[in-house]
Every structure is written in structure tokens, then in C-alpha cells.
Protein 1
Amino acid sequence: FYNESLSNQDVKQLDRKGVFHSWSAQGSLDPLVIKSGSGCRLWDYEGREYLDFSSQLVNTNIGHQHPKVLAGIKAQLDELATVAPSHANYARGLAAEKILARVPAGFDKVFFTNGGADANENAIRMARAITGREKVLSAYRSYHGGTGSAIVATGDFRRVPNEYARGHVHFFNPYLYRSDFWAQNEEEEGARALQHLRRIIESEGAESIAAILLETVPGTAGILVPPKGYLDGVRALADEFGIVLIFDEVMAGFGRTGKWLAMDHFGVTPDLITFAKGINSGYVPAGGVIVSERISRHFDENMFFGGLTYSGHPLAMAAICATLDAMEEEDIVGNAERIGANVLAPGLKQIAERYDIVGEVRGLGVFQAIELVEDRESRQPLNAKAMGQLKASMVECGLLPFVVANRIHVVPPCMVTAQEAEQGLSIISDALGSLKR
Ligand code: PLP
């Protein structure tokens, strides 16, 4: 395991021999080898250092190898490494208590899962059970996970080859830069997106719709901060038609936007909140559904037909407790807010002023995106070859970026320092400057 003589090549060969990778044709993969990490830094087997501006899959909000989280997991490991979900376990109860303390009033239970997809599966299941209805409305610009209903609720291209679950309907969510509603400003975009959603509800038949599932701030789809009033409008539609509102906070939640939950920016409360990723930075896989009192009361009397062997796994729970405590003690959420407002947003604005291929920069906290275009007039997305070149040159300069389609998502850990944030921005800027077209 800890063989000091291993090289990058050894590890890559072993990977290519036996590991089947996610979302890929397996034949031509060339995975970057990573051995170890600390904070925002990662190293390979040959001592090459990377600044992690991806937070892996936007999940290591607390950074790599945080000592308090490691200590929490180790303490739990010494006491009990695993236990069935039917038992009462202190770490699990404490994790639920700490999560509920960070959400608005009106939520009183947490159902734990192994990650974000199964959090959404179970939120959908609860919504269907409580309404007796089947359909789930979700946005085209979204990602909700790779499993049965979650991947069909997803709007992006990954849904299409996986459309086996039934009862899913999609709608267009607001995205002013590429408005589907011919909108000229935020207000028009929000209002017209709401009118479109109303028409979808009416056309599908409100009495058939169990849930509206929405990423509070769509992440993989491009970090699309919703216009003022949009989420209030969705809440009002859900109330008008008796639909359960689910906010997917898997990527945006637990510090990423500079608040505990992304929904805290908008003052809108859903009926169910799903989470994963930043809840414990993925040190041990975990996710879950935060259940409102109303839905919770339904399941006081009615059986919940769902469960997982590892629901509330004690190591994951210990990681949650230690992560939330450390984030609080070290004001990591405040740091995400300050770095976003004082370093990333102004730095990205400068980058946008410097390079014509930047169409738009946007985001909240350490959840920002640079959208690249062929030219500002047509807004045509920058081609895949150029995006590949950009990615390679950032990696070459020691930055691990999160590149999606024609965008660079600027998503370092929430504990990133101002100096690290500036270093990352400067590598991004140099890569844009050296792009040959
Ligand atoms: N929901 C959102 C918003 C996500 O970004 C993701 C993963 O990227 C998921 C759900 C799925 O989470 P997981 O990969 O842990 O199943």
C-alpha cells in the first residue's frame, strides 16, 4: 500500500489494468496520478505539486487531510467501525443534530444515504409517498446523480442513454446569458422562467406531479445563480399546486457559496433538502435528505419504504461531526464568502476584461465559473479543442482545474487562502493568454 518505491507509471498501469472508470470510454483514458494531499495541495508519486482548484468533484470543501476530521474518523474507528442503520448510534444522532442546527426552522429529521444520487432518489420517494402522485419536474440544466431516478431527473446529456425510470418531466431554468426566454434582464428572465414552469405544471396536470426538484444554484450545468425572486416563485407554484419542493444542495451546500446552504442567500425554504459532498468533504462517503416537519409527521404514521445497509455509517457520521465543528471553529464558511467576494469575483472580472474569449464570469463564494466563447457577439461556446488545450496548460502549470464543456469552474476548497486563490487565478489567466487559436 505505502510502498515508497512506487512511480506514477506503476500506479497508472495498475489502474488501467483493472479499474473501470465513470462516464468514460475505457480505451484511451490517461488518468492523472495523485498520491497525497494537504489543504488545497495534492502531490503525485514523483513529488509534483498541484493546486486543487476543483475540490475534486467540488466536494473537498474543508480541503485535503484536515487533521480534526482525520482525528474524528480515527476515534470512531477505534470504537466501532460499522453498525446497522436500525441501531441507535451516538455519532449518527449527533450528525443529525449538527445538520439540523444549520438549516432554517421547520426541519426535524435527517435520512442518511451514501451520496448525492441516493439522497435524491429517497427525496423523490418521499415526495411520491406523501402526495400519492408520480411525476417529478426538474430542470434541463441540472445534474442530480447517476442512479435510477436521479439520472433521469438530471437534465444534461447524461440522462439520455439512461432514461429507464418513469414519470420525469423537464423544464428550462433561468440562465440569462443564454436565455431560453428572449429575456434582456434578470427580472424578465426570472418572471418568464416562472411562467414557463406554470405552463408545464398546467400542461402535465398538477394532480399528477409529486415534486419539483431543483439545484438551488445549478452547479455542473454552469453555476447558474437564479435571478432574484425565481426561487420564491417556484415555492409559490409548489404551494399553489400541492407539490413537494426539493432543493438539491449536494454541490452548492455546506459552505460552497459562502453560506451554510445556498438557499440561505434567497430566503426560500423547500420541503426536502438533499446534501452530500461538502457535508464531510467526502472523507467517508455520505449524503442524505433533510426532512421538514410536515413530511416527517406523515412518516410518523406511515411506513417509509426505503433503506440502505450503510445509512448513517458511523465513520461517515464521525466525519460529518468533525467537519461541521471544524468549519465552525475555523470560520471556513466565512472564508469562502470573503475569498469569493474579495479575491475571486474581482480577479475573474479582471480576467474577463483582459480576454475577449471570456463571455461571462459569475458565481457566489468559492462557486464561480468562467464561460468561454468563440466571440462575444455570437456567444458560440468555445470549441472543445481549445478547451482541451486550456486544461492541459493549466495542469502543466500545476493547477488542477474543473473544466466542464466551455467553462472553467473556479471551485477551490472553502478554506483556500487569498494567496492560493490569487495563484490559481494567475495560472488561469496565463493559460487564457497563451491559448493559440
Ligand atoms: N446532485 C448534484 C447537484 C451534484 O452535483 C451531484 C454530483 O455531482 C449529485 C447530486 C450526485 O451526487 P453523488 O455523485 O454523490 O451521487
Protein 2
Amino acid sequence: GEPCYILAVETSCDETAVSVVKNGTEVLSNLISSQIETHKAFGGVVPEVASRKHVESITYMLDEAMQASGITPRELSAVAVTQGPGLVGALLVGIVAAKSAAMAFGKPLIGTHHIAGHIYANQLEHDIVYPCIALVVSGGHTELVLMESEGQFQLIGRTRDDAVGEAYDKVARAIGFPYPGGPHVDRVAHESEEVVTLPRAWLEPDSYDFSFSGLKSAVLNVINQTKMRGETVQAGAIARGFQESVVEVLVEKAIRAMREYRAKQLLLCGGVAANQGLRTALRERCEREGIELLVPSMKYCTDNAAMIGAAAYAKWKRGEFTSLDMKADPGLYL
Ligand code: KG4
Ligand code: ZN
């Protein structure tokens, strides 16, 4: 049939992103403007500041992404945008821009779930085979999602408190790294010969839920006690202990879900999929168990719009379009 070209917009947090994706797999253009430098001064993402920054760059980026794609607005099949979850003010900027583009070009709108986007990031480089399990790990999310077929999402586990990335960033801050600290913790964890043993939160034996706030508190206690004794904080040993605890629980629960649901593939996605400790542990474990593991390249792990284009394509194929009076939904259900 006719090729499908989707113009996709993502502004749920601190990256303004616009992309044009062909047939849900071929990325024709992929622009990302990160606000990390702006938010660094505050030690985290400030919602109001995020919205303003999105407003400053979105129009220009829409234009750039179309130019770089080599296709004309006439050729577009649809305009997709992240509807939620995320920061409501940030989401609104992308939604207004996408609606305007859809109206101006006379194209249908496709509201997309941010996590569906992270999961479908895998489709940009691999073929997803169902049933599959997605382990979504980012600054805002920690979820195990079962997909029995395309476009079907069943949340089988989620964090009951902090998201993994959030816990990484808080621990990083406590041991003195700038925001976002996840990559720093990852690095020093690898360099350290020493390890501080920390607890693992398994929760109920059959639960696929996660909890990281206890672990985070344990880290803060170790740091405080060390300081009270007048000793130097062993950042590497703490980072390594924290990472080992996080990785062990994530890997164990993901593998158990793979077995229980007889899934054919394990999809790792979200910003924390960049974590070397997690990637290595999952790769080794999957190899041993004969499980096929999909991991998107780094640029598709962190927030981007190409993943939204890939997720929207699945909806486009089913003719699932979204009304132009659609609203941002910060707590959107998958
Ligand atoms: O998916 P993402 O870009 O944004 C959200 O949707 O949240 O994820 C960002 C998160 C941050 O918390 C960051 O610290 C974490 O991913 N992160 C890492 C690593 N790289 C990024 N955490 C641990 N190890 C890493 N290498
Ligand atoms: Zn994300």
C-alpha cells in the first residue's frame, strides 16, 4: 500500500523532540533539543521552566524536522503527539503544536502514550515478536508490561514509590554528582573494587512490583553514618552496592515474567536502559536462558519523538485517530 509518513512530537518532560517516521520503522528526521543544561542549575526538572523552553523551540523544530525529512506536508499521513503521562504544562505545548500542524496540513491526529513510545522504540531497529515483555526503566517510570499482540498493553508490575532513574538521580545527588546523576553512578560503580552491601526490595513473592525508596534511604543512612564517624564517603562502593541491588531485582523480575507469560522477547527501554550494569546483566542472563533480548540504541532509549512515530504507526494501521479536542493527560493509563 501507500507509505505512511508520521510527523511526531514529544514534549512530556525536558526534551523537545520532533521526528518524521516512515512506516513506523524508518526514521527520516529526528530532532532533539535537551533542556538538561537549563535544569542542572536547579538540580532537577522545573515544570514551569520546561514548558517555557518547549514553547521557545517547538515551532522552529517542527519546521526543521519537516525540512530534514525530505517530504512535504502534503505527503504526511498523520501527526502524532505524546498525550501523557508527563508534566501537564510540558505536554500541552506539544499537543497545541501538533493540533495546529494537523489542522494546517489537514491530517489526522494520533494521541500517543509515552510508555508505548518507549516500548515501540524497539520497533525502529528490530521486529517485535509477540507475546513479549517490556521492562520500561526511566526517570519517571519503572514498569513491566506484557504485550500479547500489537497495541495491547497489560501492566503487570510497576514501582510503588520512586522510578529507577529517579532513585539513581537522588543517590547521585547524595554522593555529590550533578543532575542527571544516573550515568555518573553507573560509571563509578564500575570503577570501584569495593562494594557496600545494600538491601533488595523483593516485595511479595509473586509480585512484579518494584520499590526503590527503601534502598535510597539505606544509601542516605550509610552516607550520614560515615560522615558522623568523620570518615570519607566511599562513593564508588556505595554506587556499586546500589547498582547491584537495583539490577538484581530488575533482572530477576523480568526473567520471571518472561517464563510465566511464555514471552518470546524481552524489550528493554527507557533512559535507564543506557545503564551498563543493567545491560550487561540482562544480556548475560538472557543468553544463559535462551531469551531474545531487544535493546534500542542509546539515542532511542532516552526521550525522543521517533519512538512516538513508531507507536503511532501501530494505531494508524488500525485507523485509531484522536479527536482534535483531545486534552493532555498527565496520568494517562497505558
Ligand atoms: O527516559 P528518560 O530520558 O526520561 C524519562 O522519561 O524519565 O530517562 C532519564 C533517566 C534519568 O533519571 C537518568 O539519570 C537515567 O535515565 N539514566 C541512567 C543512565 N543514563 C540515564 N541511569 C542509570 N545509568 C545510566 N547509565
Ligand atoms: Zn521517557
Protein 3
Amino acid sequence: MGRVAVVTGGTRGIGEAICVELKNMGHQVVANYGGNDQAAKEFTDRTGIPAFKFDVGDYDAVEAGLKQIESDFGPIDILVNNAGITRDGVLAKMNCDNWNAVLDTNLKSCYNTCHTLVPGMRDRKFGRIINISSVNGQAGQYGQVNYTAAKAGILGFTKALALETAKYGITVNAIAPGYVDTEMVRAVPADVLEKIVRRIPVGRLGNTGDISRAAGFLADEQNSFITGATLSINGGQFMAN
Ligand code: NDP
């Protein structure tokens, strides 16, 4: 059955692949993005999927954006919290703006979207929420206290919300990708990236399909017994329990 699915940060990288996966499953997919209108236009031209601009870190903007999507397309039953940014630096050199931006975009965004959409999902007794964390939220990463805190926070958020929503037919799960070949990772200096790849047992970066297929699996209506789980997809780089 086709449902309305929203993917935050859906216009590029992992988010785009998830949008396409969900569309291929027969869902009406809507992407969100933060500010890159050109990338969003190219995405919509490529995929036929509409894109809505709002800042996932801003509660009022999220509420207005999601209400607009519901009025245009119908109730949102599948939510993928994928939008994310990095602002790296060791703690001593990290200013408040870089802390706040990363926490707001990566973690507060999950509160903003879920607080807006969970009441409707509860009423309809169905929901699939997938939160994109990171291996760095599981293992920790030098120079990323902000990103690591946000991505670890997503894992706790996922488990707590899974408990709160389980009896309403809503599942809440996290995916923790390892290093995936997107613009975010292409921004890492080549010598650092080479060292990272050497630490990945399968010997390569992930590709966006490695993550989007898992998101499709977790969004599947049949998979109603998987909730509060974290799916680590990292080529064996880190084996979290
Ligand atoms: P990209 O940088 O390729 O794309 C990020 C997307 O998020 C874009 O669509 C961007 O929109 C959107 N976005 C950024 N800030 C906001 C905002 N404030 N409001 C709304 N949308 C926003 O990212 P990736 O595909 O690499 O990463 C996707 C997710 O996966 C992130 O949460 C990331 O942390 C996580 N992840 C990525 C890994 C990797 O190796 N790539 C590894 C582990 C986790 P716009 O184009 O307008 O800027």
C-alpha cells in the first residue's frame, strides 16, 4: 500500500537514495532540504520527487513544512530523519555556534519532526520512523564532540520513542552508517580518508544503496516487530552490540 513518506535532507547523498528506494516501493515520497535550491531542483528533475525547503532545526519551520506536505499529499506515515551536517573541530576550538548548529540539525530535528507527526501516527495506529545516526555516534570520533553527541543522542531518542509508541503500531529504528561515499565524506581530506578506508574490513566506502536498502526494509509494513533497533552498516568497521 502506498503511503506518504518524508525524508529530511532527501535531495542529496544518502537521503536521495532513500527517497528513490521508498518511491520504488510504491510510496508517495516528499523530500525536505535546507537551502541548496539548485541541488533540490536537480533532484526533482532527476527523480520526479517534490522537495520542500525548511530548516529541520527550527521547530516552527518544521511544523509548518510538515503541515503543508500533509495538506498537499495526505497524512505522513513514514518519516526518515536523515538531514545532517558536520562542523568539525576539537573541543578546545569548537565555538558555541558549531556546537548548536550540529545538535540542532542532527538531533533536535528528530524532536521537531516526531513531535509534529507522532500524534497523527498514533491516531492512525501506524508509523515507521527511521533515524539516521552514525558509526561515529557509536564509537566516538576525534574532532567531532558535537556530531558524536548528536548521533549518540539519536540512538537514545530512538529507543525511548520506540517504547512510547510500540503499542500504537509505530516502529522507531536507527541506522548507523559507516563512511558512505557522499559529498559529506568527499569533504574529508584525501589522506585522512585513505586511513579511514584502511580500517574498514570490507576495504571500501559504503555506497548510498547500502543504506537505502536498509531504510526500505525498516519502512516495510510487514516489519512491525523490529523497533528500538540500531542497524549498523559499516563494512565491519565497528561492531556495536
Ligand atoms: P549530504 O551532505 O550529502 O546531504 C545532506 C542533506 O541534508 C542535504 O539534502 C541537505 O540539504 C540536508 N540538510 C542539511 N542541513 C539541513 C537543515 N538544517 N534542514 C534541512 N535539511 C538540511 O549528507 P549525507 O548524505 O552524507 O548524510 C546523510 C545523513 O547520514 C546525515 O545525517 C549524516 O550525518 C549521516 N551519515 C553520513 C555518513 C557518510 O559517510 N556520508 C556516515 C554516517 C552517517 P541542502 O542540500 O539544502 O544543504
